[in-house]
Design brief:
elongated; transmembrane; membrane; signal; 174 residues; mainly alpha
Length: 174
């Protein structure tokens, strides 16, 4: 059985990471007052980001590893968006304090969510690897074995023994 770091599961995990990074980058950019333009640079950046995220999904990542990928994606997407003419009118490719802060806060928030999702995916996958317990019914007896039949009969108890303890019967003591 292939794990979450291989095959289709790896591509799915990397694609989720790429979509989250791209959406977060565009939302954080708009929240900081920047205009969102879909240019050829943004498309090339999104494709490069997808490749980077699928490559990073080869193993289980910690919060620090996910935060590193998300922060690198923010820098890369910001530069690719600037290469498409996004920041031509401003100097410094739009690295204003508000823009940097909004990208950083969004990167930390998305990284926390993705780290928890990563833990959940790997925990669910580890549950599928637990040994299966076969359903046990009434097993058929072996043909050549000795079958011991036990009889459970109640032992007779004297009636006076029942009256010695407990609340007893009504009336004066005997």
């Amino acid at each position: 059985m292939m794990g979450p770091g291989q095959g289709v599961a790896r591509v799915a995990r990397g694609s989720v990471l790429a979509v989250c990074c791209l959406a977060m980058s565009l939302v954080a950019h708009a929240a900081a007052g920047g205009a969102v333009h879909v240019t050829s640079g943004t498309v090339v950046g999104g494709l490069a980001l997808s490749g980077m995220c699928i490559a990073a999904a080869d193993a289980r990542r910690s919060f620090g590893g996910i935060l590193t990928v998300v922060l690198l994606s923010q820098i890369g997407l910001h530069l690719f968006a600037g290469a498409g003419g996004h920041h031509v009118e401003s100097s410094g490719y739009g690295w204003s304090p508000g823009m940097v802060a909004s990208h950083a806060v969004a990167a930390v928030a998305v990284s926390v969510l993705l780290a928890h999702a990563e833990r959940l995916v790997w925990a669910l996958w580890s549950l599928t690897r637990l040994p299966r317990v076969p359903l046990l019914g009434d097993p058929a007896p072996a043909l050549n074995s000795l079958i011991i039949v036990r009889s459970y009969r109640p032992k007779p108890v004297a009636c006076s023994a029942l009256w010695l303890g407990g609340p007893g019967t009504r009336g004066p003591p005997r």
